Prior knowledge:
Helix content is about 60%, strand content about 0%. It is mostly helical. The chain has a two-stranded antiparallel sheet. It starts with a helix and ends in a 19-residue tail after the last strand.
Amino acid sequence: MKKSTQVALILLITSLIAFNLFGVQRFPRPEFENGYQQPETILNAPRALFFEYFDLAVLIGSLSLITWLILKKRSRKAVFWVMIFSLLYFGFYRKGCICPVGSLQNVTLALFNPEYSLPINGIAFFIIPLVFTLFFGRTFCAGVCPLGAIQDVFALRPVSLKSWVQSLLGLIPFIYLGLAVLFAATASDFIVCRYDPFVGFFRHNASFMMFAIGGILLFISVFIARPYCRFLCPYGVLLNLVSRFSKKHLTIAPSACISCRLCENSCPFGAIDKPTGAKFKQPSNVLVKKLILYCLIIPFLMAVCGWTASKYYESFAKVNFKVKLATEIMQSKNSESEVIPLEITAFRSSGNSEEVLFEEAKVILNRFYLGNWFLGGFIGLVFGLTLARLTIIPYKTDYTTNKGTCFSCARCVDYCPVKE
C-alpha cells in the first residue's frame, strides 16, 4: 500500500476524531423557571434483531473475504481495503460494539454467573473469530478487528524490536487476560471495555485520559506497529494460542523457500522465524535435560506466583462495588467522624440490610482469594513457558511465519520472488 494513501487516511481519521473531540455546544443550557418538573426517564429501545444478525453476517462475510484474499489471492492491497471497511463499519459506524475483544468478559461472566443472560450474538462474536483462526490463522486480526485496523493505518515507518524485548512485553497481554477473567468472573468490572484506548474515538465519549492514551498509542503505532495488538490485547492471547494449531496458515512463499532473504525484515511485527543454522542445533540429550529442568521450575513458579497473588486478594476485591461499600460501612462504624459518605447514605436509605451486604461481600472475598491463586498460577506458568521458549531454540532451515504471533496481514508475500 502506497504511503500517500495511508497518509490521506490518517488525515481523514484524525479529522474525524478532532471534529468530535473539540466540538462546541451550539446552544446554551436552558434556564428553567420555578415549577419545572423532571420528565420521566425513557429507556432506549433495544436494537432490532435484524440488525444484530446483520452485524453477524457482516462479520462472517468479512472474515470469509479476507481469508480468501490472504490464502488464495495473497494480496496485501486487497487486505488493506477490507481493513478500511472494517474500521469504518465495526469502528466508527457500530462504535466498537459488539466487539470480540470485549466479549470474552461477557462469556466469562456467563460461565461463572448463571443469572447473567448472554445473547446469542455475543457468543457468536466471541467464537466465530476463534473458529476462523483455528482453520486459517489470525485473519480476524489481519483486517476485521477495528482496534487493529486503526493502528495499522498509522504504521508508516515501523521498526523492528529485539526478540527479547518482544518476549518481555508479550507477557503483558497474558497478565491482562488473567485480570480481565478474574474481575469478570467475580462480577466486579469489565476492565477491557473500561480501558479500551480506541473505543473512545469510535463513541466520542471517553475521558480525556483515555483519549490521551489512545492518541499516544496511535503515535507509537507510526514506529512500533500495532502496539495494543501485540503487547496489550487479551483476546489476542486466545487467538495466538488457537492459531498455532491452524491447518491452512499464511506462508511467505507459495511453494518451497529458496532462502533469498528478501523477506527477512518485511514483517513489522517480528513474526518471521528465521533459519537458525546448524550451530544452534542442540543435541537431543541437552534438550531432554532442559525439558526436565523446566518441568521442575514451572510448577515452582506457579506455586510461588499463586501464593504471592493470594496475599493481595483483599486489595483486588475492593474493585467490586459490594466489597468496597461493605468496607466503607465497617470503617464508618469504627470512625469518630460525623461525615457519612454519600454511598453509605444512599444504601441505608434504600432499606437494604447491612448484614446481607456483609455476607455477600464475604462470599466475593472468598472468590477473589481462590481467583488470585489461579491468577498467580497462570502468570507463573506463562513466565516459565516464556523462559523455556527463549532457551530452547528449535532448529529451522527456512523462513517461516510464526503461527502464533503472525497477524496474517500479507505484507511479507510481496517480498517473496517465488511464484506459485
